[in-house]
Amino acid sequence: MSKALSKAKGFKKSKSGTYLSMATTAFGAVGVAKQIKKARAEHDRLRLIDATVSAVAIVTGLALLYRELKRLGDDDVLLG
Q: What transmembrane ranges does the database entry give (predicted)?
């Protein structure tokens, strides 16, 4: 296995990969915000509950990624 391929496989467990995951997860919040706005405008409680559950999932995902980022600390795969 080449050195470049080895680094690419370790990207997910690097600080850069974690930041990228956090950004894509946070980007999902835009869709949830639109869903909440539409549900409120239509007074649709079921869609509002669905959007709220999705928002909680996004917050939980970001919290898990933040915890992983703290665990990485100085042990970054791509830097070493």
A: 16-36, 48-66
